[in-house]
Amino acid sequence: MGDQLLNLLMYAIPSLIVGAIAFLFFREHIENEDNRRKFIMHKQLQKEALPQRLQAYERLSIFLERISPNKLLIRVTPLSSNKDDYEALLIKNIEQELEHNLSQQIYVTDNCWSIINASKSATVQLIRKAALSDKVDSANKLREVILTDMIDKTPPSSAGLSYIKQEVSELW
């Protein structure tokens, strides 16, 4: 009985070792194949998403250019001489521009979207601050004050544009 058990162990132990080694190799091979497939799929998705991301950056660049005070004031003319109405019209125009581009946020980083929102808010704040000035008593005077303020300053949207350019350069 002891000899039979010893013979059984002599045949079983090598078989168990070979089986364990084969199991480990197959498991590692399957993991490598899964990782390779995931990598290929990720690369394919990146390749397909790149044009959409670039288009989002383009649209957000256009948005920032359109809300730049110099360009905004040329494009949006006062409907009356009331400064409050013109202030509201300018801010409404900026808000509509942002709403039109809200879906682009899914293609850009959170930091980029935050900077774009900050640029928009700073532009709105600049308009509101100018409207509060004692010198401003009409829509045309509001335009004049904003344009005069912008002569020495860079528009708030330029920070967003710089960030977009930086992010796009990192895509390459």
Strand fraction equals under 5%
Instruction: Characterize the main sheet.
Output: none
The helix/strand class is mainly alpha
Which series of helices and strands comes N to C?
HHHHHH
Distance linking N and C termini:
73 Å
Mean pLDDT: 92
Counted by DSSP, the helix tally is 6
Question: Nearest-angstrom radius of gyration?
Answer: 32 Å
Shape: rod-shaped
**Percent range for helical residues?**
over 70%
What is the count of β-strands? 0
Low-confidence stretches: none
Concise overview:
This protein has 172 residues and is mainly α. The protein contains six helices and no strands.
Task: Give short descriptive properties of this protein.
mainly alpha, 172 residues, 6 helices
Structural features, described:
- With about 170 residues, this protein is an all-alpha fold.
- The protein has helices spanning about 1-65, 70-75, 85-100, 110-130, 140-150, 155-170.
- The model has no long low-confidence stretch (mean pLDDT about 90).
Secondary-structure map:
Layout: H1 2-66, H2 69-75, H3 83-100, H4 110-132, H5 139-152, H6 157-171
Helix pairs in contact: 1-6, 3-4, 3-5, 4-6
